[in-house]
Amino acid sequence: MKTSRDTVRNTDRIHNSRRAGSLLKTVLLASVALGVVAVPALAQDTGVIQLNTIEVQTSGDKGPRVPVEGYIAEYSRAATKSDTPIRETPQSISVVTRDNMNDRAVSSVSEALLYSANVNGQRYGADVRSDYYTIRGFPADLYLDGIRIPQIANQTGGYSGFVVEPYSLESVEVLRGPSSALFGQSNVGGIVNMVSKQPQAEASNEVYLRGGSFQRKEFGFDLTGPINNDPRFTYRLNGMIRDADTSYDLGKNNRIAINPSFAWRPDADTSLIVSGGYLKDDLGQAGVIVPAYGSVLPNPTGQSIPRDFTDGDPRIATYKKEIGYVGYQFEHRFNDTFTLRQNFRYSHLKTDYRNLFAGVLPTSGWNGRTLPRTNYLAQPELDSIAFDTQLESRFDTGPLEHTLLVGVDQQWQRLDNYTGSAAGPSQDLFNPTFNQPLTPVKATTRLLQNQYQTGIYVQDQIEAGNLRVTLGGRKDFVKVDSEQTTLSTGRSVDYEQDPEKFTGRAGIAYVFDSGFVPYALYSTSFLPTLTLADTPLKPTTGTLKEVGIKYAPEGANYSVTLSAFEAEQQNVVNRISGVYYQTDEVRVRGVELEGTAQLWDRLNLTAAMSFQDSEVSESQTPAQIGKLPYTVPKDQQSLFVSYNVPLPDNLKGDLVLGGGVRRIGKTAGDTLNTFFVPSYTLVDAFLRYDLGNYRLQVNAYNLGDKKYVAGCNSTSQCYYGQGRSIVATTSVKW
Predict the structure, then answer these.
(1) How many Cα atoms occupy the beta-carbon half-sphere of 65 within 13 Å?
(2) Residue 44 pLDDT
(3) What φ, ψ does residue 59 adopt, rounded to 5°?
(4) Which end of the chain has fewer surrounding CB within 10 Å, N or C?
């Protein structure tokens, strides 16, 4: 319940929060510096070491912890938190491997997902502030190595989303459907789990240089191997630095990222991996909003808004974000029955965001060229701690083989956000004038928000011959307290929420010897809802019914998944022009088909298509019932291929040609469907030449330089997609 009271700003809490962020940054930078100095020295041969014999998995082995070669992954631990093969899991799962990401030279996790079935990876076009994607029409929740990544509003993206550099990742997993029964906080559409590169016992090093469109200059490195030639102790250190502009004026895409990790594997049954990460983005005018009139709809002047138009101003185009995290993954196998795992991560995010951006158009009398603008300031700082402890036991009861998982996880996050806004000077869409008189904006509001969550979960995976049954349940206890203070008066508004919810899932699959695996799944979802305002919202809940069939013969170099689903989510959160509101219920029915293959040792391909019917099924606003949610495509198709071209015997090396086509169907432009954003089709291509340890590669995106709008929220807010860009990469391994 809201209460109003006079309050005094708690400066101790403010200073403690700022000191915590500075301390984390110092610790991370110190650890990185130590790693840079120590790794070369530790890698030197200092003599003969007598070791106990231990098992070390190599790239020739297969398993959930082994790096995947090629485009096909056989395992995804995130789906069940166990070592279950993907083909035996009653759920639609995609894995974007490291080789796939390398071929496409991806620069973000959103780009990594562009060819995955029913994933809209760039719903806000060329905006680089965060990773923006939906799965089956719903925002996806983000995980790193099985631990949820905190978000400032409990939804992926936003103006200060937690991002991860894709070069630090081994793979990106898409788990369609709710995962609340294991992970707790999840939308009904699914989750994205990013898998970090891990230290390897075999020494391997790589450096690369990259340059291209928009004055892009980039350098990266990836080093791994044993310490003192002892395979029990291994390290990994990767990082990159980029300086680049964007397709629109005043935008930048500068980044520094570094990720050290250390592994201790004293025997085949025990492992401890300690890892950290630091990322800094400097983006200038990080995103641009344009009206629908002149981009999607006809403009009264008859003109089209240029794709490089910016709604910002060079004096205040500021977007700087720092992210740091440190954690560990521990596993110990006691015997053939019991295995204990514990994962931990502390995360910190800090953003300085000061921009002019497009405001709401007048309801009548607009001349088609004068763009109202808002002068905005936001300085959020987020801290988070997450634990996940699980005990796995494998046993038989008669003819039934069980993999029983019992676990508890706890998460805490604290947001401290200062914001302010004021009307800014208008801008001419077709003849912009910069450096107009502008009053600096100061913070006027402070939001202090804490969330505590504890979840207890149980899952039993049962095998009976070729039959696979998965049963899981979880109970979540959540407490949220928020305090929003008007800084000029010291007056605050508080509210508390303490929702709790049981979620579950039941799945069944039958593994035919031929490789066909039909399956069915029912699961539920639960997501406590946070906003960046003092408005308390109801938790989001959902249900999913899904049936499908997979074709993946054991050991085959191809796999296909066909699925049909119906998803319903209640209390869906939308945000338009800074205002949060909830739609009572959204229902999505769809069909998906996805296939991946490695053929003849020369051809890699991934193909996907999806068709879905989404609608607002219940709403307190009757006019919205039966309407499509905005930025949700009705259909998507994609195909990406790489081919190793046979060369004459007198030519050394490997020549690889590849490319892809991706189509996004039309989407609704606003909540009442008064207009639609047209479908668009884009073509990508790449050429690579490998000669021993050296590689030269050229990638082209949106090869036809198609001008398109990726999505709209209203007639006032639309987002251009990226124009054609070309990048060249040269790398060496040793």
Answers:
(1) 17
(2) 39
(3) -65, -15
(4) N
Report the candidate in 569, 689, 590, 573 with the shortest Cα–Cα distance to residue 634: 590
- Burial (0-12, 13-18, 19+ Cβ within 10 Å), 127: buried
Q: Which of 121 and 9 is assigned the larger pLDDT?
A: 121
Q: Where are the beta strands (DSSP E) in 201-337?
A: 204-212, 216-227, 230-243, 251-267, 270-284, 318-333
Q: Name the fold adopted by 3-733.
A: Maltoporin; Chain A (2.40.170)
Residue-wise pLDDT for 678-729, tens only, equals: 999 999 999 999 999 999 999 999 999 999 999 999 999 999 999 999 999 9
Give the residue-averaged pLDDT of 79-83.
Answer: 76
- The residue type found at 267 is D
Label residue 83 by pLDDT band (50, 70, 90): confident
* Helix or strand run (H / E) with residue 104: helix 98-104
Two tokens, residue 98: 């490291």
**Domain ranges across the chain:** 3-733
Residues 264, 335, 344, 183, CA torsion sign: positive
Tell me how crowded residue 180 is: count the other CB atoms within 10 A of its CB: 30
Q: List, for residues 179-222, the tens digit of each pLDDT value.
A: 766 777 778 899 999 999 999 999 999 999 999 999 999 999 99
For the ranges 53-62, 170-179, 436-445, 723-732, the maximum mean pLDDT occurs at 723-732
Q: Tokens 């919205």 correspond to what residue?
A: 624
Q: How far apart are CA 609 and CA 591, in angstroms?
A: 8
Q: Are 484 and 534 in contact (CB under 8 A)?
A: yes
Do the Cβ atoms of 346 and 326 come closer than 8 Å? yes
Written as six digits, the tokens of 550 are: 């997979």
Residue 634's φ and ψ, nearest 5 degrees, are: -75, -30
3-state secondary structure labels for all residues of 475-509: EEEEEEEEEEEECCCCEEEEEEECCEEEEEEEEEE
SS3 622: helix
Residue 366's identity, in one-letter code, is W
Tokens of 396: 């038989």
Rounded to a whole number, what is the largest CA-CA distance in the chain? Answer: 84
Residue type, 580: Y
How many Cβ atoms sit within 10 Å of the Cβ of residue 207? 14
Mean pLDDT estimate for the chain: 87
- How many residues are there in the chain? 734
pTM above 0.85, yes or no: yes
Query: To 10 degrees, the CA torsion angle through 111, 598, 665, 582?
Result: -60
Q: Sign of the CA dihedral 597, 599, 605, 611?
A: negative
3-state secondary structure 569-583: EEEEEEEECCEEEEE
d(C-alpha 611, C-alpha 563), whole Å: 11
**Could you report the per-residue pLDDT of 333-388, keeping only the tens digit for each?**
999 999 999 999 999 999 999 999 999 999 888 999 999 999 999 999 999 999 99
Is residue 213 classed exposed, middle or buried when 0-12, 13-18 and 19+ CB atoms within 10 A define those classes? middle
Q: What tokens appear for 532 in the block?
A: 């960046």
CA–CA separation, 109 vs 373, rounded Å? 30
Strand-pairing partners, residue 566, are: 545, 589
24: buried, middle or exposed (CB in 10 Å: 19+, 13-18, 0-12)? buried
HSE at residue 381, side-chain half, CA atoms within 13 A, is 15
Task: Give CA–CA dist 166/109, Å, rounded.
Answer: 6
Per-residue model confidence (pLDDT) at position 65: 60
